[in-house]
Amino acid sequence: MSGTPDDTKPVNFTVKAPVYLQIGDAKADTAHSGVCVVDVNLPFGKPVNIEEVTFKNYYTAYVTVRLLRRNPKQEAPAKWCTAVRDLPLMDNPHTEGGSQDYYTIHRTQMQVEPDHVVCARLILRQPSLAWLTFSLEDIKIFPHTEPDPEKEVSDWLSDLTLTDQHPDLEGLPDPQTVSSSIQQMWALTEVMQTNQTTASIGRFDVDGCYDISLLSLT
Amino acid sequence: MDEGIELSLTIAQIIQRLRGSHLHSQIERQAKECLHQPDVKLESLKEDVRSFLKTSGWERKLQNAVYRELHIQLPPRHPPAPPEHLKEPLVYMRKAQASWEKRVLKSLNSMSTELGVPLAHMRPAAEQKELTNKWNEMGTDEPDLSRFRPVYAPKDFLEVLIGLRNPNHDSSEDISVRSHWGLIQVPLNVRDIPHLREAYSELNLTSGQMGIDDHALIHPDLFENEYVQIGKKVVMEEDSAAAQQYSRQGCPTGLRADLWALILNATNQPQDVMHYEQLKAGVIQHNLLVDNLIYKDVKLTASNDDYYFVFEDFLYQVLLCFSRDTAVLEHFKYNSATPPKSYIQGKVGDEECAVVYPPNGVIPFHGFSMYVAPLCFLYNEPSKLYNVFREMYIRYFFRLHSISSHPSGILSLCLQFERLLQTHLPQLFYHLRQIGVQPLRLAFKWMVRAFSGYLSTDQLLLLWDRILGYDSLEVVAVLAAAVFAFRAENLMEVTSLASAEAVLADLSTLKVMPLIQVFLFATAM
Fold first, then answer.
1. Which of A18, A31, B323, B332 is deepest in the core (most CB within 10 A)?
2. Alpha-carbon gap, residue B438 to A84, rounded angstroms
3. B78 vs A216: CB contact, 8 Å cut-off?
4. A174 vs B: CB within 8 A
């Protein structure tokens, strides 16, 4: 199991200002741009293996993620590849569904292995004219952490187990099965004792007092 | 998010919620007692206990409880999402809801100060005794309610919905001229007739319906007898999911009470009765200003209604207890509204003295008692009636008076009504706009009450069958549009708002299921 985002910290990176692409003359600003590119520069010299990318949407309809990967073993120059193509974030680009939701793109959802990534590029598309602007907020990239190796029990410990002597049983149940079932029942009682209820008690007053004069407006 | 992880999270959430509940301890007790049985063996303890629970019906009860939890469960949270995002994902709607709530609270505060009535205080002992004696006939009381006025009426809320704007929405050009016809200016995704036909396929012209095919002139062997037999089986099986599916084609009158209780998993066990008694004690002990609002609302609405005035006493018993029920506070996790807060004895800022007012966090408005009134026809025991109403409120009715982007929220229903009318009755919509009438202003009061008090009771219950069956309030918007379609000819001839209102004043003769069926499945596309 890889590390969860709760344990790992996101990678520190700089996000360049989003660039809205235009066709032809950049001065023609009467039409809204429907494509925006956000470059994410990961720390120089430290390629990242990406576990997941999280962000909050702000009216982006589709997102494409491209990664610049540099394989450390080979001397080949870094190559761009598409990790996620046109992932829909809004069911309908013209309506509110999904417009301000939080999203996670996990490495298993990516088309390529997001390892040794130097730079990421998010291409945002919003074809609808209904919105004034669109972007992604709060972009975080979490690195992939290797799981802890299984702790190996030393060989000499296993020599210490004694072989059982089987006593002469006649008509009595097998002690192994009895002890294992008793253990099961003991475990059941333990679980019952540790039950924590989420049910509320139902009291709305404080020590019997419920004298209120004004409601709080904050 | 990975589907397997989502499923595990959902299961963990449900277990957390059911752990420690009364059902949990009942099942444990049953499991312990079944150990005495001869066919339960030590070697296969787990499987034998499981099969015992299955045959004795306890597994089904657990299934129903899990099914109920799925209805009100929050979607699994992405780690960064704050809790308010689960209440309502759109920031501008959260803000609008907060400022609307502030208005309501200010109004309540000023009412309290003007009238000199505290928001809550303990009843003196003599008054408590008197109320206990009069509990079953509170309707005979004639307190002076002339100074009290409802905190808000549905039309005030409509103005707030009309004024909602998305700051990121480009409404500069006539990009969608349609949006300038209607009142709602928020671009929510609402379903049109082709999608509705798919979703509501059980209502199509070839399926039998209660409300159409149980008519006296149609031979019962064609549909009704067999349908009632199936209904009896569903009630005997005690399966919530089956009851919900069954209810899509309507419930036979004799089985409706049991079916609704199954769908909502509203039992009437001793602990439910005890809980109701505890609420009753809360009513007797403390007097709330909200109680006067409830009295006034019942007197103004239900008591004046030919169908519901007989239930006046029941309504007091249910609504007063409802305001004392802190279990209702749970639903604010997925409701965009927030319960009002206050401090006892004026100790503002002292969190130890912070309380919720009223205890259930819901401030009643004009017409609120109409959510309960139709249920009085189904249940005559106060604690069962109470449980069914509370479950219906926390699943559906709360969406009718809070600002949210949910598909069953009142905002989506209003937009859907307008869009359906604009798409399929454009001439009517245009004509009404020409004479200065906005159709939503006529239909809003129906939708906010889910048509309670406007339809005749048997028709209303058939409509609410479908709300439960499809777990959605969309059918309310569809019916509103269908009513306009039905009365379109008359409406095309009116020339003023007053005459439009007159055409739509009386809905008590309408049969809802034929209207909905024709509108959804027989409208020319």
1. B323
2. 46
3. no
4. no
Q: Work out the end-to-end distance of chain A between its first and last CA atoms, rounded to an integer number of angstroms.
A: 44
In CATH terms, is domain A32-143 a member of 2.60.120.260? yes
Per the structure block, which two tokens stand in for A109? Answer: 């959802």
Per domain, the residue ranges of chain A are: 32-143
Is the Cβ–Cβ distance between A131 and A78 less than 8 Å?
no
Low-confidence ranges of chain A (pLDDT < 70): 1-8, 24-31, 148-173, 188, 190-201
Contacts of A104 in chain B (CB under 8 A): 1, 78
Residue B70 structure tokens? 């799925």
Chain B residues in contact with A95 (beta carbon < 8 A): 187-189
- Is B179 in contact with B187 (CB distance < 8 Å)? yes
Query: How far apart are alpha carbons B319 and B322 in whole angstroms?
Result: 5
Please give the backbone phi and psi of residue A174, each rounded to the nearest 5 degrees, phi first: -65, 120
Q: Which residues 6+ apart lie within 8 Å of B266 measured at CB?
A: B260, B384, B387, B388, B390, B391
What is the four-CA torsion angle of A127, A133, A134, A136, rounded to 10 degrees?
Answer: 170
Compute the Cα dihedral for B36, B40, B41, B44 and give only its sign: negative
The answer to whether A93 and A127 have CB atoms below 8 angstroms apart is yes
Residue (of B435, B407, B427, B424) closest to B500 by Cα position: B435
CA B466 from centre of chain: 13
Interface touch A212/B120, C-beta < 8 Å: yes
Neighbours of B336 (CB within 10 A): 25
Q: What percent of chain B has pLDDT over 70?
A: 97
Q: Which residue has the higher pLDDT, A167 or B384?
A: B384
Dihedral pair phi/psi, residue B288, rounded to 5°: -110, 150
The answer, as to whether pTM is greater than 0.90, is no
User: In chain B, what are the domain boundaries?
Assistant: 3-73, 92-162+267-398, 193-264+399-522
Within 8 A by CB and 6+ apart from A152, the residues are none
User: Cα-Cα-Cα-Cα dihedral of B451, B453, B459, B464, to 10°?
Assistant: 50
Nearest to B245 by CA among B489, B470, B505, B480: B470
Contact B367, B449 (CB under 8 A): yes
What's the mean pLDDT when you consider all of chain B? Answer: 91
Q: Which residues contact A141 (CB under 8 A, 6 or more apart)?
A: A10, A11, A13, A40, A42, A48, A50, A52, A53, A120
Summarised one tens digit per residue, pLDDT across range A91-109 is 999 999 999 999 999 999 9
How far apart are alpha carbons B339 and B360 in whole angstroms?
Answer: 8
A 133-172 residues with CB < 8 A to B: 133, 138, 140
Pairing, β A35-41 against β A19-20: antiparallel
Residue A146 CA neighbour count, 13 Å, CB half = 4
Report CA-CA distances (Å) from B97 to B88, B103, B145, B152: 10, 10, 29, 14
**Is the Cβ pair A205, B355 closer than 8 Å?**
yes
CA distance A116 to A53: 15
